[in-house]
Amino acid sequence: MIISILGSGWLGLPLANHFIEAGHTVKASTTSQNRLHELRQAGIHPFLINIDSLTNNIGDFLQADILIVNIPSKNVAGFRHLVSELATSNIQNILFVSSTSVYQNVRRIMTEADTDFYSSSPLLDIEELFQRWSNDRTTIVRFGGLIGYSRQPGRFFKSGRIVQNPDAPVNLIHRDDCIGMISQLIEQGVWGEVFNCCATTHPTKREFYTRAAALIGTAPPQFGESNSEVGKQISNKKITQRLNYQFQHPNLMEIEFRESP
């Protein structure tokens, strides 16, 4: 297949490498002219694209079988322009990387059916844009907090920042499992779905960040007061069962973080 990945950063670049190793042709975007050579060296067809001001090269970028949208932008107008360009593209399916931040932070287990607990996140508007393009051909993956490699959680609270609600559960996912889930969704042809994606365990912030700091030899962060009414817990049951997915890092308290780009 030809796979276009909008965004080639911390997740997008290793995801592109994964698909190249699997024998696919990969196009990937960057907003930095300086990274075009790096992408070419990796065997990727590079494109300079900014969602805030799309240019004519978006047409060539969208000549692909699958589009993976993996950028942190919440520019709804920019995404509306992108979706309008899909009318003249070859794109058959879209996978949009969203976030579990679309759910309110209330103390309950959140599943994909909990639409009554949506927040006011613009990500929901962007999700809807792609679903309107084709609900049957679009899959949304809502990742929890992203960790692994250069994202060392032991460094998240280094500058004296206080961890609020330390007894609330964490909802995190390792990059290896992000790539594993995206790959399996595409390989198994699972389209027209919405999935919550996070690790199986949900230790408290106090437990997790204390251990994460110890792993890199730093003092634990400062913890604030707890509020028993906040602290959602994201369920991964739907995607685990739908894909029969076996996590590489199911237990957050057992991850041995290692450095890598």
Short description:
The chain has 261 residues and is of the alpha/beta class.
Write up what this structure looks like.
It contains 8 helices and 13 strands. The chain is an alpha/beta fold. The protein has a single domain (2-145, 174-200, 233-249), classed as Rossmann fold (3-Layer(aba) Sandwich). Helix 4 packs parallel to helix 5. It is globular.
Keywords, please?
7-stranded parallel beta sheet; globular; 13 strands; two-stranded parallel ribbon; alpha/beta; 261 residues; Rossmann fold; single chain
Rg, alpha carbons: 19 Å
Widest β-sheet, arrangement of strands: 3-2-1-4-5-7-11
Which term fits the overall shape? globular
According to CATH, the fold-level topology is Rossmann fold
Q: Classify the helix fraction into a percent range.
A: 25-40%
Average of pLDDT: 96
- Class by SSE composition: alpha/beta
Please give the largest β-sheet.
7 strands, parallel
Topology, number of strands: 13
Write the layout of secondary structure elements.
Elements: E1 2-6, H1 12-21, E2 25-30, H2 36-41, E3 45-48, H3 58-61, E4 66-69, H4 76-85, E5 93-99, E6 109-110, H5 122-133, E7 138-143, E8 145-147, E9 162-163, E10 172-174, H6 175-187, E11 194-197, H7 205-215, E12 222-223, E13 233-234, H8 237-243
Parallel strand pairs: 1-2, 1-4, 2-3, 4-5, 5-7, 6-13, 7-11, 8-10, 9-12
